[in-house]
Amino acid sequence: MRTQKSVLILAAIFLITFAASYAFAGHGAVHKPKHEEFPEGDTVNIAGIIYNPHKEPVGECHVTIYQNGREVDHLETAHNGKYVSRFKVKKGSVPGSTFVIQAKKTSFGTKRITFKGTDFSQKGTHFYISEDITIPRVRDAAFWISTIVFVGAYVLIAFELLHRTIAALLGAAIMMCISYTIGTINPAFRIFSFETAIASIDMNVIFLLMGMMIIVGILKNTGVFQWSAYMSYKLAKGRVFLLAVILMTFTAVSSAFLDNVTTMLLLTGVAIEICLSLNLNPLYLLIPLVLASNVGGTATLIGDPPNIMIGSYAGLTFMDFVIALALICLVAMIAMFIYTKLVWGKDYRKSQESVTNVDKFIAELKEKYKIYDKTLLTYGGIVLAFVIFLFLSHGYWHMEVSIAALTGAAILFTIGVVTKKVDMLHLIEKDIEWPTLMFFIFLFILVGAVEQAGLLALIADWILHLSKGSFFISMTLILWVAALMSAFVDNIPFTATMLPIVAYLSKVIPGSENTLWWALALGACFGGNGTIIGASANVVTMGIAESKGYRISFGGFMKTAFPYMIISILICQVWLMVFRPG
Prior knowledge:
Blueprint (H helix, E strand, L loop, with lengths): L1 H22 L7 E3 L8 E10 L10 E6 L2 E7 L5 E8 L8 E7 L6 E6 L4 E3 L2 E5 L2 E2 L6 H18 L5 H17 L1 H4 L8 H6 L3 H17 L4 H13 L3 H18 L2 H18 L5 H14 L8 H10 L3 H36 L4 H11 L5 H24 L3 H18 L5 H8 L2 H20 L1 H13 L3 H18 L2 H18 L6 H12 L9 H12 L6 H26 L3
Parallel strand pairs: 2-9, 2-10
Antiparallel strand pairs: 1-4, 2-5, 3-4, 3-6, 6-7, 8-9
Helix pairs in contact: 2-3, 2-17, 3-17, 6-9, 6-15, 7-8, 7-9, 8-9, 8-10, 8-12, 9-10, 9-22, 10-12, 10-22, 11-20, 11-21, 12-23, 14-15, 18-19, 18-20, 19-20, 19-21, 19-23, 20-21, 21-23
């Protein structure tokens, strides 16, 4: 059994490493030059960028160039949408010729640009021209297949007909298989290429999770989480609801300055230990904590990936986010305290009543939950402090947060193995949540497919069409669509799709200033609380709980979390209407 697990883990590591090699590799334009029939002729240079209707570059677009109806070159755009064509033609034929550039890709219409040879700039026997092309979206077979498979995968997850990792794997495999079988025969069925599928995996997220899982797994060997559980209970003096409020507040504040996934990786072990000592189902505390992490991460520029994207695109600073969003996040937290009391208050009271002598129980916890490896904890504390420093300053270093996590994990792992305080195989098999990591990989591929096919762009266009220049309608649509979409799909690609739409609306709608950006940020971040797969922190936390024997279904999580998500978005709606933060 141990050998089988080791083989599965090695296979997972291979897949992640293989995916990373594609995700971080640069894919240049594929150029298939025509045979040079005129070695002594004129040289024609045509370059440009292929855009979609949202002015985003389109990679792997087929570009064909014709001279007087005769094909002279064919190539594919790079991942950044650029194409560069260079070919020879008969000497002196350029000025009197008509040239056509044709751009074509699955899920897009064919666009042809015609221009005369006299439009070129000339330098000796070299002719130059730059032509950017915007190609329209179409709803072809690839669009409908990817949408159906995507919805089908989510149905399997939502109704627990399959484990979420297997459902995501099945959906991703079907899309890629159709692309390379039927799609080879008929290009209208080619959803995306293998390279695009792999590149859609956000390896920054995967490596961040892996690194922090290793760090937390090593720190577990020191007893620090059990000790933290004792200290939290002591601070709350046995009042379980107060204990939940203290932990939710700490989680929200930590998530504002650390990635919320990292925060939950650090706190999930503490929460489980607390609940076990109180005979309380850990899910009754973990769900409020993960909701608090998503709310707290909304308050700052670095708290959640959508905020980082919005800040970079709109030129908003760290303090812009704090001034505009910190207070509304505080209001949302207060609403969460009340909601938690209403939903889990009875369970908290039963747990509290099970302890007849609080002082005696605190003394028992102090004796039971001690730090039993201070040396390893010292090393771990120093490394973790260094990682947190890198998290806070990663913008200065132009460094991805995953690099900080992997660096800390590598250092601490090495220390643990060299000092023989950590069992390497046990940590790799037990403490790294491989099903969770694999789920993220295949979910990224699923979302990347519908993004390529145009489903997310269709939703963005719908918002633009319905707004009709109204601030109230635009703000409401952006807020609620972002929230509902983020509850069911990863908010990173959806936010990326919405950026140019919100930028345009912010310019043309009088008085909107930065308010529409805040609507997008609040919707994307708060919306992640809606379902178990709405945010990375949700998946990771529930995955750890499941590995400990405390499993919650998709519907069970949604039943308790989705109502709070609606409440928080209603609060945001009123807040944005009344205060219009600029």
